[in-house]
Design goal:
The protein has a single domain, classed as Roll (Nuclear Transport Factor 2, Chain: A). The protein has a four-stranded antiparallel sheet with strand order 1-2-3-4, covered by helices on one side. It is an alpha+beta fold and 131 residues long. It has three helices and four strands, in the order αααββββ. The longest helix is centred in the N-terminal third of the chain and has 14 residues. It comes from Actinomadura gamaensis.
């Protein structure tokens, strides 16, 4: 987790957190694509920002709350592929691998996430974990 907001953004893009996903987390900007929303949600998991995760989740599938795994440290996001989810689209899919360490063991979450445009903003609908 970045200790200072000037440190690189956890999402992997070449910008400081404060100028990248931090702007979305603070509500100063919206993700322009499904991929950018995916990146900002990953960064929210790194930063343990439950409020942003809930705000960026579709109301029909949003859980009542978020609990973070104790001892889990997210290390890196790898975007595998995207389908749709750009300007002019109303749906998008982002396949990613989120690498983490838990209890000294390295692993990753491989997921295909679905996003839709809802009230003029990209939101997460759901995801399917891949082997």
């Amino acid at each position: 987790m970045p200790k200072r907001r000037s440190e690189p953004c956890p999402c992997g893009l070449p910008a400081p957190y404060r100028d990248c996903c931090g702007r979305l987390h603070r509500g100063e900007a919206r993700a322009e694509t499904a991929e950018l929303l995916m990146r900002s949600r990953y960064s929210a998991f790194v930063m343990r920002d439950a409020d942003y995760l809930l705000r960026s989740w579709h109301p029909a599938t949003r859980p009542p709350g978020i609990e973070f795994e104790p001892g889990l440290r997210w290390e890196r996001l790898e975007i595998v592929r995207t389908a749709d989810g750009a300007a002019g689209d109303t749906r998008g899919t982002v396949e990613f691998r989120a690498h983490y360490v838990q209890d000294g063991r390295r692993d990753h979450l491989h997921e295909k996430s679905r996003f839709v445009l809802h009230d003029d903003a990209w939101v997460y609908v759901n995801g399917r974990v891949e082997p």
